[in-house]
Model the fold of this input.
Amino acid sequence: MKRHYLMCSIFLFFCCLQSMTAKDYELLSPDGQLKIKLHINKGTQYAIEQEGVPLIALSPIGLHLDNGMIIGNGSVKKVKNNEVRSVLPVLFGKNKTIDEAYNELIVSFKENYDLIVRAYNEGIVYRFSTYLKEELIIENEEAIFNFAGNPTVYFPQSPDLRNFEKTYVVYNSINDIKPYRFAVGPVLFAWPDTPRKIVITEADTYNYPGLYMEPNGANSMRGMWANYPRVVEEPENTYSNHLPIIRYNYIARTAGTRLFPWRVFVISNEDKSLLNNNLVYLLAEPQRLPDVSWIKPGKTAWEWWHKAMLEGVDFPAGNHNLNLELYKYYVDFASKNRIEYMTLDAGWKESYIRELCDYAAGKNVKIFVWTWASMALEDTTWLPRMKEHGIYGVKIDFFERNDQIAMTWGHILAQRLADLKMVALYHGCPVPTGLNRTYPNILNFEAVRGAECNFWDSGSDPAYHVQFPFIRLLAGPADYTPGSLRNKTREAFHPIDRPNIIPSTMGSRAHELAMYIVFDHWLAYLCDAPTEYEKYPDLLDFLSGVPTVWDKTLPLDARLGAYILLAKQSGEDWYVGGMSNWDARELSVDFSFLSPGVSYRATIYRDEENTDNEPEKYLVEESNITRESRRNFHVAKGGGFVIRLIKQEK
Done:
């Protein structure tokens, strides 16, 4: 009996000791709708709720070091709460200002690191911050997502660690994803028969590998990262890359004192709110550049998509005739139509670039040139030489990696460009994580299945167009390159990549115009030929005048994968864009967002009766609109419409 009482006493003692060391914390969003719970007891776990409904059950997080230490498994030293309510000015984007409101919990551990957790109305985020003297070698990061219930997954599945432009494989269940399949971010999870959704992504990722996600057992996912490169192959030609061929057995080696990336949970119970969620931008490192007056967003003419094929011109055209005369023609077109840039893609020659830049400057047009990341990184004389020639911007292609080393390239190039007062877009690049806030001279990022993919497959279709704005665009602006006037039905479309044949695109012409309002791109491309646009002065008038950056974005109605209806404001004028998937539908616009007592002249580009079968068909009409107006639009299969609303003087 005495031994029995002794064993019970020892058991109770250790239970009490464990309860004394276990720490539980809760943090609510400012509106009280979202909650994150932390359970810290020889490890850190979190859980997330929305309006009291569990979304993610207790899941472990931490950084596993090669010396056996686990960041997140320590003892709590102190806890601090913060509250932030402010308005953030935005240099340019889809809003001039963003309301920034969050509650913050900082858990400091005795082992010299912090866990920082924030609850926004738009989502939940966390990151680790370390204060250690020695270099850290991180064998792996533990980021587990144990979902409550069994959500549908919009999974941008990738075959390798170099592809960031994927369409979505829609799995009805996490459990349907086979082992060893993985996806680039962001990844969306939707609970059937409810409006609840979570999009998981990251922010402020620098000097650390980018996030992938893979299945982790029943109703569970986990983060995955590319291991640190050990041996990298040397490029053989322009289109080759420095790709890792042997890797270490760890994901990162880094300074002991640093901030780690934010792990981001965008949470919504209304699809349209995802179209104006700015959480990744808010979490990014603030702007580093003291002078940004020289950074100019805008639109650009471009020769690559239509293979420089020009109908009816009196000089040789086509990709085999890329020369000064041809590029001057594009500059003239841009100048005539108030298009700020002309982009020279692969195949241009430095021998005539200075003369072209001088010519373009006289026409108030700025020149972009294409290059590959290896050139811009390794040849430190190349960017200064381009600047001396008069180049204003660079399209930098073929990053094709997001390991720790590659995730520094975007910052390095952005700073080099800024020092020269040059802008850029990144193509063939990792998914953005807020770099455009830190370095606003980086105008666009690809990481999307853009119009160029119509050369090779049928993934960039109207169904995809009403998916990625809810998911991929949460990470930042995308280089989709719209503007095709070669519009086809799903049945008539065939991908083609052959010399002297211009590709086509799927969806109606009005659907294509709506991309300039629905998609976020601070440098908007006109992918088709000037000679094609000039056949349609009414369309060219719209494309010449549509802004690329906005004062306010207002989602009106939307359903993931079905349709989008969005309004954006520029000055005193508004633009409305609507687009559908492959289903014809009726969309209704309520103009009550307009200013009271003001009349607007509306120019409407919309599908006509037979657009289902002839997607190049469209109608243009004008009318007066006020905030009391209501309009219904029939949208064809793969169709859409745009409305330009110009404030009328009294």
Remarks:
- Confidence is low (pLDDT under 50) at residues 5-19.
